[in-house]
Specification:
Length: 241
């Protein structure tokens, strides 16, 4: 049996959200309807101004809604073109910590998995570029040149997905590792021996603190590694990138 490591992608490896980037590009190209571009822009600015603690979730919810409501009019060729542009721009805009972790784990013969809520078409190319062994992303089903409206959203149950991948590849939970940045990653992190909360959002931070998981924060050109103790957390290491 093989030891493995599971990676979230958006906000964990890639410095931005690939799902957001491709939908934003479609909106800017007026492929999601007349009002989508401005509605998404306004929601994003409310988040950037930190108008309230839920402004990012509101922005994300609106972005997904605008995309899914326009699927019946969206040509697959237009979507695939936007994917190619986003991959070309974002594939190497990554965090140093997770990029180096991938290299380290490959050297240690880990089986690498990517589990992401972003579109399967995006994650397949990121997985190929960084030489992951297998991957799962969200799938919006196609029929010919159109989307059917049916979907499988990978972020809704990452523990089930990871469990299926473990079974598929006969992977060993001993020394297993998983890393993610949001509350949707918590279920996946609970399955492994070595969970890492990386730049955690508020939801994942609560899980990490309760479970005493290690926390890593990468800010500007410094990586802060925090380890739990009986008093809370202590800075275990601080390194420049």
């Amino acid at each position: 049996m093989k030891k493995f490591a599971a990676f979230d992608i958006d906000g964990t490896l890639i410095r931005w959200q690939l799902y957001h980037a491709v939908v934003d590009r479609l909106a800017k190209n007026n492929l999601l309807g007349e009002t989508a571009r401005e509605e998404i822009r306004l929601a994003r600015m409310r988040w950037k101004r930190r108008e309230n603690k839920n402004s990012f979730k509101a922005y994300e919810t609106l972005l997904i809604s605008e995309y899914e409501s326009a699927l019946h009019n969206l040509a697959v060729t237009d979507f695939d073109h936007a994917v190619s542009e986003v991959i070309s721009e974002y594939k190497d805009q990554v965090y140093a910590y997770t990029r180096n972790l991938i290299k380290q784990l490959k050297a240690e013969n880990y089986f690498l998995l990517a589990v992401s809520g972003s579109h399967q078409e995006l994650i397949s190319q990121i997985a190929k570029f960084y030489e992951f062994d297998d991957f799962v992303g969200s799938e919006y089903k196609r029929d010919g040149g159109k989307f059917t409206g049916e979907s499988f959203i990978a972020s809704k149950n990452k523990s089930t997905i990871l469990g299926s991948l473990i079974k598929k590849h006969s992977l060993d939970l001993k020394d297993s590792l998983a890393i993610g940045d949001s509350g949707s990653d918590a279920a996946m992190l609970k399955l492994v021996e070595r969970p890492i909360a990386f730049n955690p959002d508020q939801d994942l931070l609560k899980f990490a603190k309760a479970a005493k998981w290690p926390i890593v924060v990468e800010r500007k050109n410094v990586i802060y590694e925090l380890t739990p103790n009986e008093h809370g957390y202590q800075l275990a290491e601080s390194t420049s990138k």
